[in-house]
Amino acid sequence: MTDSKYTRQTVTEVRTWVPGKLFSLRVTRDPAYAFQPGQFARVGLPADLDAPDAEPTVWRAYSMVSGPHQPWLEFYSIVVPEGEFSPRMAQLQPGDALYVDRTPFGFLTLDRFPTGDHLWMLATGTGLSAYLSILDDPAVWQRFERIVLVHGVRTAAELAYRDEIAAWQRSAAPGQLQYLPIATREALPGMPQARITTLIADGSLERLAGLPLHPAQARVMLCGNPEMLADARKLLGEQGFAPGRRGIPGTFAVENYW
């Protein structure tokens, strides 16, 4: 069932990262659906999964993991146990329907940064999604000399898509992509056990990356939980970073679809 606002797509693959907690869905893609890397989709389900042909009435925003050139869409999700949407989405299997709004949304895209030498991608949890789509775009490798991908999680089990990230590191120029997995509830080899914002505040993130986190060279993307976003925005603002406004390019960009 479709109308002018959404299309009915079909689940083709399910990946479980942490049973009962983290999963990814791959679905078919309408040929007319075009988006920029870093944007998000509104995806919908009927209120009653036992009536799969009913119109979708519950909608949520999910960044695309997949790149714009791929013939499918992929979404990465956490299960919110008491949530209205994610537990139902987690039940979907290949052949089931997922509805996708025809219009992509969001501004966490490379065109926010017309200049800059270093790109810092800071994410917590499933906020990683948008960066995976961006890293799948050849443009990011051509534009930035160095890319630092920071993924904050609770435990190592939550570090999804590590194989894909490692493949980009192998195919990029030596040292062009630096991956910093940061866990708060266990120690990872060679990494501090801390929140991303703590590492920004005390300078540890710069030392880990071996790069200055300074608006003269760095462009920063933020995607994750609201507390991290609020704290990181404040810290970056104190260091001279500013969002774009009224056609003036910025030095950091934020996506918050909670």
Q: Can you characterise this structure?
A:
By secondary structure, the chain is of the alpha/beta class. 21% of the residues lie in helices and 29% in strands. The strands form 2 sheets. It has a 6-stranded antiparallel sheet with strand order 4-3-6-1-2-5. It has a 5-stranded parallel sheet with strand order 9-8-7-10-11, with helices on both faces. The radius of gyration is 18 Å and the shape is globular.
Keywords:
258 residues, alpha/beta, Elongation Factor Tu (Ef-tu), domain 3, Rossmann fold, 2 domains, 11 strands, globular, EC 1.18.1.2, nucleotide-binding
Beta strand count: 11
The CATH superfamily title of the largest domain? Nucleotide-binding domain of ferredoxin-NADP reductase (FNR) module
- Name of the level-1 CATH class of the largest domain: Alpha Beta
Helix content: 10-25%
Query: Radius of gyration, Cα only, in angstroms?
Result: 18 Å
Approximate shape: globular
Proportion of residues in extended strands: 25-35%
Q: Can you tell me the CATH topology of the largest domain?
A: Rossmann fold
Biggest sheet statistics: 6 strands, antiparallel
Instruction: Give the strand order of the largest sheet, numbering strands 1, 2, ... along the chain.
Output: 4-3-6-1-2-5
End-to-end CA span = 28 Å
SS content category:
alpha/beta
The domain tally reads 2
Indicate the CATH architecture of the largest domain.
3-Layer(aba) Sandwich
- What value does the average pLDDT take? 94
Family: Belongs to the ferredoxin--NADP reductase type 1 family.
Catalytic activity: 2 reduced [2Fe-2S]-[ferredoxin] + NADP(+) + H(+) = 2 oxidized [2Fe-2S]-[ferredoxin] + NADPH
Enzyme class: oxidoreductase
Protein name: ferredoxin--NADP(+) reductase
